[in-house]
Amino acid sequence: MRNCYFCTNNFKKIDYKEAESLKNFTDSQAKILPKKQTYLCVKHQRRLALAIKRARFLALLPFVKH
Predict the structure, then answer these.
(1) Would you say residue 66 has pLDDT above 80?
(2) 3-state secondary structure string, the chain?
(3) Beta-carbon contacts of residue 28 (< 8 Å; ≥ 6 apart)
(4) Which residue from 25, 27, 2 is spatially nearest to 14, judged by alpha carbons?
(5) Residue 62: inside a domain, yes or no?
(6) Nearest 10 degrees: CA dihedral of 3, 33, 45, 59?
(7) Residue 56 Cα distances to 5, 8, 31, 35, 62, angstroms
(8) Is it the case that residue 1 has pLDDT exceeding 80?
(9) pLDDT tens for residues 39-60?
(10) Are 17 and 52 in contact (CB under 8 A)?
(11) In a domain, 63, yes or no
(12) Looking at residue 14, which CATH number applies to its domain?
């Protein structure tokens, strides 16, 4: 089983302003990838989803790709 990316790299915070790093956790249609594909722990998956949603609201990430 793979380990959580944020736990292994000792990230203290998932920042919504780092849009380029958040793009790695979205698919081609700008949907948030599920936990089974990202291999994140529950705590970091929730924080990642919140960061992506905040970045979308501030127009740093798209809601949908056409």
Answers:
(1) no
(2) CCCCHHHHCCCCCCCCCCHHHHHHHECCCCCECCHHHHCCCHHHHHHHHHHHHHHHHCCCCCCCCC
(3) 65
(4) 25
(5) no
(6) 130
(7) 22, 26, 11, 20, 6
(8) no
(9) 999 999 999 999 999 999 999 9
(10) no
(11) no
(12) 4.10.640.10
Residue appearing with tokens 């990316």: 5
The 10s digit of each residue's pLDDT in 15-42 is: 999 999 999 999 999 999 999 999 999 9
Asked if residue 64 belongs to a domain, the reply is: no
Q: 56: how many CB neighbours lie within 10 A of its CB? A: 19
CB 6 within 8 A of CB 12: no
